[in-house]
Design goal:
Blueprint (H helix, E strand, L loop, with lengths): L16 H18 L1 E2 L9 E2 L2 E2 L3 H6 L4 H21 L11 H15 L9 H20 L5 H18 L16 E3 H13 L3 H14 L11 E5 L2 E5 L4 H14 L2 H17 L19 H14 L5 H20 L2 E2 L11 E2 L8 H4 L6 E2 H18 L8
Antiparallel strand pairs: 1-2, 3-9, 4-5, 5-6, 7-8
Amino acid sequence: MSSQIQPAGIPAPSADATEWARRANQAARSVTRSFGRRLLFLPGTHIGAVTLPSDTLRSLSGPWHYWWQAHYVDCLVDAGRRELAGKTKFDGDSRPSAGRLASRLVTTIRLRNLLRFVNDYYDDMAWLALATLRLEKLAEETKKPGRRRNAYVQKCLTLQFDSASTDHLGGGTFWSTKRDFKNTPATAPVSLYYARTGHTERAQHLVNWLNSKLLHPERGLYQDGLRISNGEVVVDGAIYTYNQGPVLGALLELGGEENLRRAALLVDAVERELTLPGTRVIRGDGTGDGGLFTGILLRYLALAARDVRLSATTREKAASLVYGTAEAFWAGRRVSTGSAGKGTPAIVFSFEPQRPASETYPVGAAVELSTQLQGWMALEAAASITSNASSPGN
């Protein structure tokens, strides 16, 4: 174990900073080498296959999953921050850096999305906007800015968020261009994006709407949304793990006594309501889109664990949840025999942290990108807490 001193309020992890970084690098290599590929064999492109094994025809004709790719960008930015701190590429000197792959991925998302960044779902666009914002910050720190492209993404998508964040239903952000559902999945990341781009009044207005309309009074968690059905407003009371993450992020980004108080209560609620019985492990939400949910929440819990404005008790809770869940994903991984290649991830993470991948993804089963990004994200979250160098960059 490392002899480094843990900051006050953060429990000693099961592994030191070097070990968590090593695990995160292994996950990054597994995903990028196995799922990552060129789009239509075009040089300079990079995109994540939705499932493995896969082929080009299936990739183009099957579901697109725009927002999975946005979280792929975010994971690459995490790896890029560790590269910056450690002065070592995650996949060796002969391969592209994480930042370069992330930049290629953003460009390729536009190509795959029919030469535009806009799509029908505002939450999808919010995740990409947040990821490119972090990518631009990384690029500035590495002195390799991509201002023109990233500025275009942000300008284009900000206009979409402005149009979707209306006074209908008292505020909030519409989920899709159908404009019949305002929900946490769209409102929370849009609020976080506004907060990180200096539009604090807009961000706070959206957070206030979430607090007044969708915060469950007893459970302390945010419900899914308000749906317009047959002219009536109906509350969708489903509670998903990932929705709590960007709300937490927005509360921390905005700061102030009331927002920080609410952030601490949200960490308490996550620990109380969303963990597996008798553990500090956050529950899984299955495959498909749900395969990202736990990982997203861990990303923002890691921010809380590092935020010195929160009490030591709250930071300890947040860190323990991150470490406990990341350790469960790591302990349950399945390691492929032989060298990894296209169609064979070197590491396979379970989509349920309490069950080993040998059960959820036995040899020969199709493996989804979302679930592997989740495992990678969990390890990056743990690595970010143990490494003081990664605390900037959100």
